Amino acid sequence: MQQLLSQPQHEREKEVVLMRRSMEEGKPARRASDVLCLSLANETHQLRRTLTSTAHMCQHLTKCLDERQHAQRNVGERKHTGGDTSVQSVIEEENRLLKQKVTHVEDLNAKWQRYDVSRDEYVRGLHLEEKINDCAELAASRTAPDAAREWMQILEQQILAYKDDFMSERADRERSSTLLDS
After folding, report:
1. If we measure between CA atoms, which residue out of 81, 91, 77, 166 comes closest to residue 129?
2. Residue of 80, 91, 98, 175 with fewest CB within 10 Å of its CB?
């Protein structure tokens, strides 16, 4: 600060202008960073909920497995006494429930894998803003009109592709979120 204050007035003004320009140039990156941080915070919350749900499911499956092993021990004992048909039906019912739960857990896992892929594509979509800024700078420069026009067309095509990907990923993410909430 002392070095800045010791400079002549026009030097200080130049420095202030440079600092302001630097701050303005950093705003899009900070906005993108804020959006990404919010997205990651939401994802962390959802993953914690899923982890809790999965832990409960595992505990339940462990309990069912313990019960099944206990029932199988009883089957061995009842074979000697002749009461194995009722135990067999209990075991079949437990097997059916366990298979349903395994299917449910596998389905949740697949949904989270799809969500993870869509989140990665969403982050790549954040670079759309950078591409738009590149187009604007290119249009402003107009130093080589033909080359600039070609470059703008390429960037516009990339923007449209990113936009389409972003919209489809948003729809997928919304479908995933409604499936996970239900």
Report:
1. 166
2. 80
Max Cα–Cα distance, the chain, nearest Å: 105
- Contact assessment for residue 138 and residue 151, using Cβ atoms and an 8 Å cutoff: yes
Closest CA to 69 of 48, 41, 49, 98: 98
Residue 127 is classified by DSSP as T
Position 94, amino acid: E
Query: Do 47 and 81 touch, CB atoms closer than 8 A?
Result: no
pLDDT along the chain (182 residues), means of 10: 73 81 84 83 86 84 84 67 71 88 86 82 72 63 63 85 89 81 66
CA distances from 34 to 4, 38, 63, 86, 152 (A): 32, 6, 43, 61, 28
